Each structure stands twice: as structure tokens, then as C-alpha cells.
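Continuing the series of single-chain predictions for the mutant panel. This is the parent chain; the variants come on the following pages.
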Amino acid sequence: MTTVSLIDLATYLPENRVPAQWFTRFSDNDDLRDNPMFRPPDYRHHAADDESNVDMIEKAVAALVARHGPGVLDDVDVLLTHSQLPDLPILGAGGEVAARLGINPEWIVDVHNGGCAAFVLMLKLASQLLAGGGRKALIAVAQNAAGKIFVQDQVRQLAQASVPGDGAAVGLVTVSDTAPVLDIACRYYGQHATDMTLAADPPRRWWEAGPGQGYVGFNEGKIIKVLARGNRQVPEVVRAVCDRIGVKPADLDLLVTNQPNRLLLRNWNEALGLPPERHRDTFHECGNLFAVGIPVNFEAAIADGQIKAGDIVMMAGFAHAGDFAAAAAVKWAGRPA
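Parent structure:
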């Protein structure tokens, strides 16, 4: 089997830092305002109205280039991108990202279905594609729905609007054993795929014009199902990877996950027997970053020295209403000097 390594990560958070009060002053009439699914973070970052997915990815890549030098992208064979809110519904970000970066990979693939666990799914895809003879992959995730969808005057009155935040992240993957990806598990639950819905008042299909602004369709029953699936699926995929690499979950040096809300973060700690300090999150500062959460939390741990060379880091998450979950273990090598 070809061994691939996650050499480095870089992230970007927009400058606009929004406090919880910006939303909570509007949500008094929402029946779901006290639901633990939507307890707001202290802050979150919002992309500017004219800031695209590609803009944010480009800024994250700039940090990677600053550390590794301008030639770090010269031999990228695989470019994978995931946009939580595509700038154009029928077109992914991959082509424009490649043009902005001045690269011409053999593979450019826009990955849509990974949701909040997209970074792990893309790591697996990169591993498979590099096994065919490539040398290096760049994986990029972006989320800008918070500053676009959830700030609209009708939507910001809903409790759900106070939780999402924006940002972008990239990962550099190479064929090497420097920081090896030890194992990856991906599981699909297609029976739940249609439980993620968009809604508007009055009702309409998302592409139809109408007076009502679109939002995520939640009710108490659906929230109970999503929480139950998240509680089960993330520990299951983490344990599956741990079993294959011969490490007990409680012995992991670091766990980084997506961060839908504080309740799931706490439940995952308890289910896996990990103390909170070894399950890194940035929820209080960034809110729910969707697919960007895993790499942002990973880099936060790198930046303040929480992890060191040789540590085993587990990345895990679940997507949408529970139709996908994934986990990957990496033996971290530290950042190049």
C-alpha cells in the first residue's frame, strides 16, 4: 500500500468577528431558541458579502506557501475542493482555485457530499488518487454560509442562525512516511440523506423565486434524530480506526472533530473516555464551521504546541443529518522548521 502523509495544514478566518448578542436579540420568538442544538457560541467569524469560497481558500494557501516557499505547489498532482455554499450552484471551486494558484494538476475534483466530515473524505480520496502514481495533493475546504445565508433579516431571527461561522482550510498531502495517515474509515448512511432539508416561508423549492428566505428545516423531532445519530456515529468510526491501528480511544493524544454544538462535543468526550483537554475545539470562538472545523481545530493545537512530533491525532466527524461519518488517524511529525 502507498503510504501518504499529512505534511501540514493552513487555515483562514475572516476578520469580521460577530458576538452572540448580534443574533440572540432577534431570536426571542423562535420555539427552538432554548434547544441545546442551537446554544450560541460566544463569537463566530463571518465572510464579507463579496468574499468567495475561492478568496478564502487562496488566503489559507498563502499561509502554507509562506511556510514552505513558493515552489510548494509546483508538483501538486491532485486538487480536491469542498465548498459548503458554492459560489455558483452548478460549478465547484476547483477550476478557479487551480487558476488562482497557477497550478495544473492531473486531477481536479470538487467533493460535495462529505459535509462536515469532508476533510477526512478528501484525505481518503487523495490517498487513493496518489496511489495511482501521483506525488502531492492539496485538499481545500471552505464555509461561507454564515455571512451569506444566516445574516439575512428573516433567517437571523431563527435560533439556528447564531451557531454557524465562516472560514477555510487547506491540507498538504504527499507520498511519504513523514507524517503517515495510519488509517481512514468512511461510513455512509444513505437512508438519512433526505432528512437534511431546506425550508422557506411560504414554502418553495430552493431554486424558485419567492418572498421567503431559505433556511435549514429543523423541528424538535428531527433534532432528536440528528443528535442521536451524531452521538453514535462519531464514536463508532473513531473506535473502528483505533481498532485497526491498535490504539485505545482513551490513549489518543488528540481528537479533533467537527463542532455542531457543545452538547455533541461533550458527549463524544464521554463516549470515548477522553478528557476535554485532549478533544480540541474552537466552538466558543468560531461556532459551527462545518467542514472547516476539523482542520481549524487541528491547526489550533499545532499553533499552541498542544501536539508534538510522534503524537497520534484522530480526525472525526459526521455530516448533514447523519448520512455520512468518517475518521482518520495521523501520526503527526511536527511542522517543518
